[in-house]
Amino acid sequence: MVESADLPQKMDGKSFRKLEPELRQELLSAQLEMIEKKAFSTLIVVDGMDGAGKGESVARLYEWMDARHLVCNAYGEPTDEAKARPRLWQFWRDLPAKGETAIVFGSWYQRILREHVAGNMDDKAVGQELARVRQFEEMLALEGVLVLKFWYTLPKDEQKRRLEKIGKKKNVARHVLADWAALKNYDKAARLGERIIEETGAADAPWFVIPSQDAQYRDAAVARTIAKAMRARLEACKAKAPAPARVVIKRSEAGSPVDTIDLTARLDEETYAKKLKKLQQKLSDMSDHKDFAKTGMILVFQGNDAAGKGGAIRRVIRPLDPRIYKVYPIGAPTDEELARPYLWRFWRRLPRKGQIAIFDRSWYERVLVERVEGYARPEAWSRAYGEINEFEHELTDFGFIVCKFWLAISAEEQLRRFQARQETIYKQHKITDDDWRNRLKWDKYAVAAGDMIERTNTDHASWTLVSSEDKRHARIEVLKTICKELKRRV
Amino acid sequence: MVESADLPQKMDGKSFRKLEPELRQELLSAQLEMIEKKAFSTLIVVDGMDGAGKGESVARLYEWMDARHLVCNAYGEPTDEAKARPRLWQFWRDLPAKGETAIVFGSWYQRILREHVAGNMDDKAVGQELARVRQFEEMLALEGVLVLKFWYTLPKDEQKRRLEKIGKKKNVARHVLADWAALKNYDKAARLGERIIEETGAADAPWFVIPSQDAQYRDAAVARTIAKAMRARLEACKAKAPAPARVVIKRSEAGSPVDTIDLTARLDEETYAKKLKKLQQKLSDMSDHKDFAKTGMILVFQGNDAAGKGGAIRRVIRPLDPRIYKVYPIGAPTDEELARPYLWRFWRRLPRKGQIAIFDRSWYERVLVERVEGYARPEAWSRAYGEINEFEHELTDFGFIVCKFWLAISAEEQLRRFQARQETIYKQHKITDDDWRNRLKWDKYAVAAGDMIERTNTDHASWTLVSSEDKRHARIEVLKTICKELKRRV
């Protein structure tokens, strides 16, 4: 928490006009360099008391900065598309690309403030919410987002005077009218504000308290703070990147979970056909059931190359109404995706309630291919385990069912399948040079898979390890697991 | 309109099973080549009678094609985000990238069907709607989308039998229940279906009528039709691209509108300050007014380089609540944008009702820089005039106010500004080698601008030509125009 921007808290018109060109120059030049370098994005959270002039303050930023690379995203009552997805979805959706600056007006703190003031969220619940907000902001910061949070404050009597003035305006749209309840709840809101600042004011996403009685001080302080922070980040980017951290993954002594999979299971054609039909019928009925509209499902398929992910997915979607599911193959990210935190591409693909999203490869590539091939630095992939657990927690908390499958085959079986693919004309597209190269790194991938399963096998989203040496057996296991999970909810 | 896929309309299980591997191979190999080449995308419109098994038919496509590059987008009742934007927005949002295939379930025809059957849209209105749908589909086709439309039909008694059966199911979600009214309105819907097929069945977006009593015939016919169409398009892509068409732009004899702009207007500092304050206050009041929430505004800024677009925009946004507007600078498209029809990047930036979107450069770059620099082929930019008019018509029909500004300066004034920019440290970023290069093509840009204004100066979205030789004059003209347009609605 920082209270000062090295400026006098009361500023007369003359000294403000004197300061202005210098401030603008400071802010604009930092922003322009950020735009040019495209090394990070800036997220400015604007929060605090009603009537403090947050809107005016943002308008000033638009005037002083390059408005073409600045956007203000305002969040009021969530739209129905937002309501149908976990609460952070709308904020993720609007995350700025590298080089861009976004202002968050009505941030993730608003819901906590509103609920707490209304008496729907007790102190303990507030603490839990704030802890999760912290994790979200920490992740953003580590992913290269410069997060700056401003808390605008106003003395009680001044707030009263201002809100009364606004209330007298006629025929204005809703966003102009301040929340009248704010006045009544001044003390409660102010106390929670202090707590928010204390508990979420980490160095990687600091709070800046802005006393807002004097509009000129307010705007100057905000501008200088942003300029300084951008400049500091630009300098940090210029410094030589540190050598990759050495990451030590603590493993359980029981050995890699991947090695414990019994690959001998087999299913004969006839039993398979019977079971398949029964399970698909079950899946069809449950997904058509009206209770399913209240939940939603996210299926993650990972596994050795050629383990049969595609075939398993086809058996899952066969009985589903095509209007309720989508299959997402995860390959190389687009440039819009690369310009944002890596989980952005999955947030933008989240299903609505009542829908099913099937990921053929997923966010786990971060700790598999990106780790093994060195696309992500050790400090990046090693923190991804926790970030992924938190992400999935958001999903299950919202009511989604999350099923994760690891389809395992032996190295020998993989070789047989690769060869078979090369020999069958309409399967040749499924085998590339990459596949052969990855095969040479079988052991490294096995270690990565073991670590992944051990560290992301949570209560809310557990892994199902599926022996896929026999495809029939694997498909039935997948369907069985999905039906079992659905059964608990429908 | 095509009724046959060279298949018998009744198919027993045995002949279907015999045909299946061949059909799958045909379809999959065409799709895989499309995925690999990334030369076009495929849009499959699934429409027709309730109970015909459209869902089942789509499920079959998922089974036979590479499901990872196939998505089914289902549209029911529009969400509130869709309702806050022109009706085509939701379809634009989901347009597939090149290489991808998207199924449209509940297409743009559904609203027409629903409204007509309910008696809310008479024959004449239907005709107008269908004409606009045609323009939309034609544009998609010309932009490289393979548009295939399937109309599933069923005899009346068969539909009755099926809908009754579905109606008996218990506890099912809403999407499972067929529309019971369908039965009552069979004749009316069937007649409109025939009209739709007749009036929108152009060669570039053909209808295929699929008699759906026999599910095996239905699925085989759809698959074969898609496979053939994809294959034909792939062959067409292989053929040598024709030489660019020679485009002749018919010009009015009055000379280029750009040349008619009187550049002598000036405004002194004092008058400017007074007018600016008054107009900004007006703009603030009107945009805060509750009536503005029922409309919305789209501002387009084009003009000579260094004409002062940025400065004018800053004067417009100064009095606006930062929660209601967004500024979009239009530079090079991202790869996600390049993979789709060029208007996609603007549809995805459309404001909601009650909001203002400000485009600093816009879709008009298609007929300016893309024309002059040769980034778009003559046959592409020359049809863009009509496409843009249609696009803006969608916007104004929906209730948006569209203001387009052409900011004009003389070649001499541009030179002075370029030189001044190079001399002022914090303006140097605004002048690049490109600017100097473009300047050498001053005449070509003037011709392009003249053609643009002449051909896109419509009743619903007219151009305002602004003399910007004097920046103060230009800014006041822009604000005046916006206030005048707003005044008619608020």
Q: What is the mean predicted local confidence, pLDDT of chain A?
A: 91
Give the name of the CATH architecture of the largest domain in chain A.
3-Layer(aba) Sandwich
How would you name the oligomeric state of the polypeptide chains in this document? homodimer
CATH topology of the largest domain in chain A: Rossmann fold
What is the total number of structural domains of chain A? Answer: 2
Poorly predicted residue ranges of chain A: none
Give the N-terminus to C-terminus distance of chain A in angstroms: 47 Å
Extended strand count of chain A: 10
Q: Tell me the name of the CATH class of the largest domain in chain A.
A: Alpha Beta
The class by helix and strand makeup of chain A works out as: alpha/beta
Question: How would you sum up the major sheet of chain A?
Answer: 5 strands, parallel
Strand order of the largest sheet of chain A: 2-3-1-4-5
